[in-house]
């Protein structure tokens, strides 16, 4: 069964040599649709150009917390205009990242929260990235709750997952779910209801086992779906079907045959 990749970065330099060959191949093979994320204004524009080229490639527009340095003052106005495009189906990826020294927590929080407000104004779902900043993310989500949101590449605890679910979150898993040391992600996956789970690659990163370490593309996602099926005790086809339905509903995708 063809699968929907809800989070990928085909603008990444790793695809510079063969981007369109890869997309042509996987979209005619086992990939039904892709949502390409953006991390700053130039990648928003690139993502939109990809959606023009492929009928079943959609995108999110937004500023990633690691890319806030060059953000123009009028970023909200720019994003509002870009988000008017029908194939911009979400605001993302946005959030908090305190992983590397030198981050500006205050500015990250301000940009994150402003983008949630924009998403709510436009009734668009939000794609959230959070690394080493769970407490501050929860604070913001309680204060300014997105109408609809997904926490991507989830590897947090079941306790945090429960708190997120109460706020209405969807939770999305990458190939990390297949890693031997991903016990927390697996335990969380066990307790998340099937109608709140989505799958993604975060391509070109996070390739699932047995591709771990290599450049990841959406065609590898079936391995993550197999793992999800195993955790939930259902057939792989069923897991793919459920996740595809969740993605279509969450992002309001208009997939063309
Ligand atoms: Zn990403």
Automatic annotation (TrEMBL):
Residues noted as binding a divalent metal cation 1 in the record, renumbered to the chain: 7, 9, 93, 202
A Pfam family that the UniProt record links to this protein: TatD_DNase
Chain residues that bind a divalent metal cation 2: 129, 152
Chain segments annotated as transmembrane: none
This protein's record includes keyword Metal-binding: yes
UniProt lineage: Bacteria, Bacillati, Bacillota, Clostridia, Eubacteriales
Keywords, in A-Z order: Hydrolase, Metal-binding
InterPro entries assigned to the protein according to its UniProt record, in alphabetical order: DNase_TatD-rel_CS, Metal_Hydrolase, TatD-like, TatD/YcfH-like
Top-level taxonomic group: Bacteria
Molecular function per GO: DNA nuclease activity; hydrolase activity, acting on ester bonds; metal ion binding
The protein's name in its UniProt record: Hydrolase, TatD family
Organism: [Eubacterium] siraeum DSM 15702
């Amino acid at each position: 069964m063809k699968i929907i990749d809800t989070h990928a970065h085909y603008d990444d330099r790793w695809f510079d040599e063969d981007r369109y060959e890869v997309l042509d191949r996987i979209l005619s093979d086992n990939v039904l649709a892709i949502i390409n994320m953006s991390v700053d204004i130039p990648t928003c524009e690139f993502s939109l150009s990809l959606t023009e080229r492929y009928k079943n490639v959609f995108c999110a527009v937004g500023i990633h917390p690691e890319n806030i340095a060059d953000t123009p003052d009028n970023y909200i106005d720019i994003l509002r205009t870009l988000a008017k495009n029908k194939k911009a189906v979400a605001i993302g990826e946005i959030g908090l990242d305190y992983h590397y020294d030198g981050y500006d927590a205050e500015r990250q929080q301000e940009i994150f929260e402003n983008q949630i407000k924009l998403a709510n104004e436009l009734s668009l779902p939000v794609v959230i990235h959070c690394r080493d900043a769970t407490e501050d993310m929860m604070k913001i989500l309680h204060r300014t709750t997105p109408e609809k949101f997904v926490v991507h590449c989830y590897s947090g605890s079941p306790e945090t997952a429960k708190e997120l679910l109460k706020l209405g979150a969807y939770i999305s898993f990458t190939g990390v779910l297949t890693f031997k040391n991903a016990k927390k992600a697996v335990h969380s996956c066990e307790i998340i209801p099937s109608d709140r789970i989505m799958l993604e690659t975060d391509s070109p990163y996070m390739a699932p086992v047995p591709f771990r370490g290599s450049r990841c593309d959406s065609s590898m996602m079936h391995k993550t779906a197999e793992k999800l099926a195993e955790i939930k005790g259902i057939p792989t086809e069923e897991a793919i079907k459920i996740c595809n339905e969740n993605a279509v509903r969450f992002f309001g995708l208009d997939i063309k045959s």
